[in-house]
Amino acid sequence: MISTGGAESAGADTLGDFCRRLDLLREEAGLTKAYLAAHNDIPVGRARLFEILNGRIVAPPRWEIVRAIVGVCLAATHGQDSELRSELLNRWRREHARLWAARSRGGNGGIHPGKLPEQRIFTQEVVSDVDGRTRTVGVVTGDICDVRCAEVWVNSENTEMMMARFIDFSVSAVIRYLGARHDDLGRIVDDVIADELDAKVAGRRPVPAGSVIVTGSGELAVRNNVRYIAHAAAVSAEPGLGSRPISDIGRCVPAVMRRVEELKERDLTVLFPLLGTGGAGGDRREIAVRLVAAAREYLRFTTSAAVSGILFLAYSGLDLAACQTAFRTAGIGLGR
């Protein structure tokens, strides 16, 4: 835990650590990501700011960006002590320079560029206390585009149930794009999943937080062996306030499971991203702990044969670290 607001004091050894400690500084200041994104002193847009704070970057951000973020946070925590603020800002400057020096030597600060470079699947058996049946829970690493081991994908959606634009950096955008039908030039000719979702919620927006709507998977059925998309209202959005994860995000897990059970199928594997940790800016470790705990609870006490396994997607090294923490907290080891 950073108590002084300095990168060096916490030992930021990699780009991932740097981003994580930058986000911890924000948390210590009691500021939301949405607040920073709207602040006049922050010289980048919301999407880029969230990428930086979530560690989804391949190179250190420019110093003027870091200086602005740190400056706003330090003003909130040490507003009356200009000397201390200056000292702490200099620590961040030195750490930022060190990361750029490592990059210029051919390194990237120790973090894998973007996504984790290979897909790995870690699973652990969970025995039901009710029916004695063994099911699995685990983590799959890398880009969701490469996942072919889950028949049900969970889409982290907002309470308006409006999927992200194709060009956005989000799971919702990827699902929408890959599920659409394209012509021979690659242009989208049928927005399959988004259109079905729109039809199912027509006249009922916004939906209650935690609601789940199931649609087909469009072209993902052929490309990734996906049969269903479970759209979970894990993010609430209000005009002028932006978006944020719903307060009890863990309830999305049993809500998804109930919808999957209604499909009347057997032995499905369900893939969850870390809901609400993208554009909504949720804390990945806190959310991972809640989601994994809810998954373990479901697998321990269910009698349904609908689900044989639950996987969590770890796109980046920071996502994987959050999942590992969550599994340890839940008392679950991760095997191969």
From TrEMBL:
A Pfam family this chain is assigned to: Macro
Signal sequence, renumbered to the chain: none
InterPro entries (UniProt xref): Macro_dom, Macro_dom-like
Superkingdom of source: Bacteria
Domain Macro: 124-331
Name of the protein in question: O-acetyl-ADP-ribose deacetylase (Regulator of RNase III)
Upper lineage: Bacteria, Bacillati, Actinomycetota, Actinomycetes, Micromonosporales
